[in-house]
Amino acid sequence: METKETKTGGWRSNKWVRAAIPALLLHCSIGTVYCWSIFSQEIADYIGFSKAATEWAFSFAIFFLGMSAAFLGNVVEKDIHKSSLIAAICFALGMAGTGFFIYYGGLHQHSAVALVGIYLCYGLIMGIGLGTGYLSPVKTLMLWFSDRKGLATGLAVAGFGAAKAIASPIMQAMLTGLGDGGIYKMFIILSIVYFIMMFVGHLLLKKPDGWHEPQTKEQSQSMFTVIKSKPIMNYIGIWLMFYINITCGLALISQEKMIVKCLGLASYVGIISTISAVFNPGGRLGFSAWADTMKDRNTIYKLIFILSIVFTGLVMVTGGIKNGEGNLLLTILVLALIFVVNAGYGGGFSNVPTLLSDHYGMGNISAIHGLTLSAWAIAGLTGNQMAAWIVNHFGQTVTIHDVEVNPTGYQCVLYATLVLYILALAICLVFVRPTEKALEAKKAKEAAKNN
């Protein structure tokens, strides 16, 4: 879509300045929610609660991310400036509030007020910032990069995935360098830094000139009317395969460090975690860019699930987690599984908005995408917990290189994820219909073959 202004160029009509950079500023800020594991133990120790008690703050954050995206999708659809400002304020306020309640908990050990305050700030308030911040740049990116929608959304969502790798060493340095009370000081300082980043993103974010709503039939209809324009099982299928991919990814990723220790690589956990963290944004960008070359973007999900099934099955058949210590081939196989699942987990996120836009058009994409992110909310409460329950109820603890692990328990997690991946592939094949673009390409190919 070109207008007189876009032809003349300038930063006001530059798709990188008005879409890509603000998207990265927003997503690289909110993506730090995944840094929770770095400081969760420090928070627990500082306020006098168990780590298990504080872990709910992260679960609530992911839950409210999905729920706020589902319920505020229409706000994003109508006004990206309002939604991106809400995101900046809520995310920064949530971080600052978390820092305050950690400080309060340090003064009043075992205080329920401190724990509930952290739940509300890190979980509810930050969660609202996460959901609106995640959605705000997505449609804008697809409008600016209409010819490479997958690459554009993959770039932004990769920023969300890469945020942990970028912020982790900074947070570690802050926790060490800020001395006594470094944990709450870190939150206060970062709340200011991230607010500035997100506010700049909010100021820069802008839809292309010439885009006026409503322009299409879909934009004049409600979100549910658009969804029901196709067989309802088509949308349910997309929602379910998205949910299953997240659940399986969280189940394995939550046990990743202990699985690596089972292989006798405890001293390399940090390096391997960093590499797997790179595969996450790599999958978000790579799979989405790859999908741009396909007639039907659903094909990319088929590939993700097939790769996950193959590598999970190989580790199960060989008993790679139980037998991997000292065996180079099995060690490589288990690490390959971790990297493949991380890449597929990321790729599932980056491809869902473009898959939805191919099926339901751009008119209500922010609202439909937001509703679909409710799958993330529920998976955030089930993925980790499913894996933890399996590990606690199957196998037994053994000592490998002075580290207590449960190889059989981690191996059993794979049985559950394999079944779920096979179910997701079946849903992908049966319920998610080919798009009109894919059907037209198939007809054209058949016609050319007959001629």
Concise description?
With 451 residues, the protein is an all-alpha fold.
Structural class: mainly alpha
Whole-angstrom Rg: 22 Å
Shape: globular
Can you tell me the residue ranges where pLDDT is under 50 for at least 5 consecutive residues? 1-8
* Main beta-sheet strand count, sense and barrel state: 2 strands, antiparallel
Residues in β-strands, percent: under 5%
Please name the fourth-level CATH homologous superfamily of the largest domain: MFS general substrate transporter like domains
Number of strands: 2
**Widest β-sheet, arrangement of strands:** 1-2
CATH fold label of the largest domain: Growth Hormone, Chain: A
Q: Estimate percent helicity.
A: over 70%
Q: What would you note in describing this structure?
A:
- With 451 residues, the chain is mainly α.
- The chain folds into two domains: 12-204, Growth Hormone, Chain: A, CATH 1.20.1250.20; 223-442, Up-down Bundle (Growth Hormone, Chain: A).
- It is 79% helix and 1% strand.
- The protein is built from 19 helices and two strands.
- It has helices spanning 4-8, 15-30, 36-47, 51-78, 80-107, 112-144, 149-177, 182-204, 223-227, 232-253, 256-262, 269-291, 298-318, 320-323, 328-360, 365-372, 374-393, 407-430, 436-450; strands at residues 398-400, 403-405.
- A two-stranded antiparallel sheet has the order 1-2.
- A hairpin with a 2-residue loop joins strand 1 and strand 2 (403-405).
- Helix 5 (80-107) runs antiparallel to helix 8 (182-204).
- The longest helix has 33 residues, at 112-144.
- The protein is globular, with a radius of gyration of 22 Å.
